[in-house]
Amino acid sequence: MDIEEANTDAAQRMIEARPVLVGLRKARDVIPGMRDNLLLHAGPPITWDRASGPLRGAIIGALIFEGLADDEDAAEAMVVNGEIDLEPCHHHQTVGPMAGVISPSMSVYIVENETHGNKSYSNINEGYGKVLRYGAYSEDVQERLRWMEDVMAPVLADAIAASEGIDIRTLLSEALHMGDEGHNRNKAGSLLFLKALSPHVAKVAGSVETASEVLGFIGDNALSVLNPVMAACKAMADAGHDVEGSTIVTVMARNGTDFGIRISGLGERWFTAPADVPDGLYFPSFEADDANADIGDSTITETAGIGGFAMAAAPAIVTFVSGTPKDAVNTTMEMYEINYAEHKHFTIPQLDFRGTPTGIDVRKVVEKGITPCVNTGIAHKEPGIGQIGAGLVRPPMAIFEEALVAFAEEYGY
Amino acid sequence: MDIEEANTDAAQRMIEARPVLVGLRKARDVIPGMRDNLLLHAGPPITWDRASGPLRGAIIGALIFEGLADDEDAAEAMVVNGEIDLEPCHHHQTVGPMAGVISPSMSVYIVENETHGNKSYSNINEGYGKVLRYGAYSEDVQERLRWMEDVMAPVLADAIAASEGIDIRTLLSEALHMGDEGHNRNKAGSLLFLKALSPHVAKVAGSVETASEVLGFIGDNALSVLNPVMAACKAMADAGHDVEGSTIVTVMARNGTDFGIRISGLGERWFTAPADVPDGLYFPSFEADDANADIGDSTITETAGIGGFAMAAAPAIVTFVSGTPKDAVNTTMEMYEINYAEHKHFTIPQLDFRGTPTGIDVRKVVEKGITPCVNTGIAHKEPGIGQIGAGLVRPPMAIFEEALVAFAEEYGY
Predict the structure, then answer these.
(1) d(CA B236, CA A362)
(2) CATH number attached to the domain at B246-411
(3) pTM, two decimal places
């Protein structure tokens, strides 16, 4: 099959995918292959011995949350002894921000691609400060997780059901016209999410206090919609996966140790190399030496044509990730060099409504020597601390080179 | 007094003003000088015989709403016979969008400038379609007004009280980083307004159905926050008014027939000339011949340094008002030519976070031959129809020339 035809097909499938948030249910009840002794995590496969601090912290926290372990040592022992399996979210049509640890009792958003029928999943965003996804697992983190699960999740589930589905592609189209890029800045998108949910939350919450708390939690968290957005991007990227002969990247993900990618025409194979530390701005009292290597499945946003690729739409983000508004425009312009298509539904007003660069072509990355620009949060390298900054990072070039060699071998070029 | 010193003082007072939404009450109970036989209207003073179609329609609608007239003829007779007085909103620390007709029984937002203590008022936004502010007054318009007054206003009043005040300056600062310019595009600001109100609305609404309806109405109307924003801009502009020796414009307003301005150092005097028809984009089935002349107090936004002056922050607005994103940037750049200061709190990410042009200096307008650029809705010229488009318009140069001559006479230059 002709590579150009294959890539056109893969990119168009990603662009035509229409991800709609259709529900929220316990992971064990909906994620394919989820089981009681399984924890999902961000990025490519990894074992405990190679896991970074924040990933270990999130694993410990999830086992405590599940009631399977009482403390760090017990949790670690369960994983090391093989009582608990660790598998990538991406092996289960799922994505999670930062450590991305999802355990069976956690509720997950269900996104359905109405164009092609595939589904994807992500957990509920915890907000800021000390949170599980950055490897924090103390009692206050557990308490928030329990409130989210016991109080908020049933309300969100009923509100989403009452909404008859929230079209995340449309939400993202609007948010890109409101200064979001959809990865690190989801401020407008989270308010559009609040707008879609609030009339239903008021009706289904059961008590006015609960309605008020849930509306406050969703409204005050400018990352509320990040997880549904990531699931939507996963559904879009998956729609472009498994196209015979395509060199389009359909997964980019990091587990805090390795950065991994998958290629549309190369099935389930991962190409991995050590992840770099993001370059960015640190919160007061933290510095680059405290930073963990790049972590999280949130690079699914860039994979689907937003996030760092759409930075030109989000000039205000430079106050958070460093740089100038002109740098933000330049980043987007550079990304056109390595992407196969321009998005039909995601447009950038600042660039005369040009579509975002969509569908990373491994060939172009290698030929031009330009790696994808990712826009991300920075975790402390020790477990239990949390977010310490935000910045920009690029995957190692080696994984694209390796993927291109594998592609040539697979297809006999 | 030195003009430069006076203008610095006036502009800094406008910039340092901190308008906070503190309440919602019936116009008759809070607006200074409001009385049972008084209707407020947008723009400079006008009589029925010179009033435009949309202003006449709104007057008729307000008298029907008040139960003072049963139909058009009765309403007109009351005004012509002198039973009803018409006075500008601006004579009562008040502003209203488009026709800007406010009657005693309507609830109005109360904004207090916490820096200087002055207050301002505006009515509740009705949303889109056939609405009183565009001169529509049919039974469906009346029904919506009654629901707003009887059902929504008490909820909003209690929610605002429970919020302990909503800082509109901060809200605008955020909205300008989210693609709003604060006059014609208040999409992000209205969602920030929803975010601030929703936890309180859920608690105070009295029934879940009412909470749901109010949250839906506020969330679905991307102009929900326009009226509090206008009141905030009025409070800011008023803070800069009455500075002895200042040539800064503190009011720009149109009644659908005339465009009027007031100058900080020239007290309560209006300078007026016939208003032009905006140049813009029309909704399907309408054209420029259907358009009324420029109308509304919403030009208070430009007077305070946002709206058309901040268009560079809102590139997506060109799909609504015509032009290209580059035109939007050029408009803001041109406005720096005629403004005295740059805003400290309202910044434009696209221009490297430069402050918006603030404080129109009559001298600069006349010397450079550049009039302020206003970004506005377009009303049908016949009463009862409503909005037919949106676009850009400029006040007549004659009123700035006249004001400058008056200033020279007043101060003996």
Answers:
(1) 54
(2) 3.90.1700.10
(3) 0.97
Question: What is the pLDDT of chain A when averaged over all its residues?
Answer: 97
Range in B3-7, B33-37, B230-234, B321-325 the model is least confident about: B321-325
Q: Note the pLDDT tens digit of each residue in A203-244.
A: 999 999 999 999 999 999 999 999 999 999 999 999 999 999
**Does the distance separating the beta carbons of B191 and A188 come in below 8 Å?**
yes
Cβ-Cβ contacts under 8 Å, B166 against chain A: none
How far apart, in whole angstroms, are the C-alpha atoms of residue B89 and residue A38?
Answer: 66
Distance CA A327, CA A135 (A): 31
Task: Give Cα separations from B192 to A195, A198, B98, B310 (angstroms).
Answer: 10, 13, 23, 18
How close, in Å, is residue B301 to chain A by CA atoms? 20
Count CA atoms within 13 Å of residue B127 on its CB side.
15
CB distance from B162 to chain A under 8 Å? no
Q: What is the DSSP string of B372-406?
A: PPEEEEEEBSSTT--EEEEEEE---HHHHHHHHHH
* Partner-chain residue, chosen from B178, B219, B350, that has the shortest CB–CB distance to A195: B219
CA distance B314 to B185: 8
CA A256, CA A277: separation in Å to the nearest integer? 9
Q: How confident is the model at residue A1 (pLDDT cuts 50, 70, 90)?
A: low
With an 8 Å Cβ cutoff, are B199 and A213 in contact? yes
Quickly count: other Cβ atoms within 10 Å of residue A78's Cβ: 19
User: For A241-411, CATH number?
Assistant: 3.90.1700.10
Cβ(B21)–Cβ(B109) below 8 Å? yes
CATH topology of domain B16-230: Enterococcus faecalis V583 fold (3.90.1710)
Nearest Cα of chain B lies from the Cα of A193 at a distance, in angstroms, of: 10
Q: HSE of B294 in the Cβ direction (CA atoms, 13 Å)?
A: 30
pLDDT in tens, B47-65: 999 999 999 999 999 999 9
ipTM: 0.96
Task: Give the HSE-up count for residue B188: Cα atoms under 13 Å, Cβ half-sphere.
Answer: 29
Considering only CB atoms, A191 lies closest to which of B191, B325, B353, namely: B191
Q: Is B160 within 8 Å of chain A by CB?
A: no
Q: Which residues of B touch A197 (CB under 8 A)?
A: none
- The tens digit of pLDDT for each residue in B136-173 reads 999 999 999 999 999 999 999 999 999 999 999 999 99
**A24-230: in CATH 3.40.50.2000:** no
Listed by start position, the domains of chain B span 16-230, 246-411
State the helix-helix crossing angle for A53-65 and A139-147, rounded to 10 degrees: 60
Strands B354-360 and B339-348: antiparallel
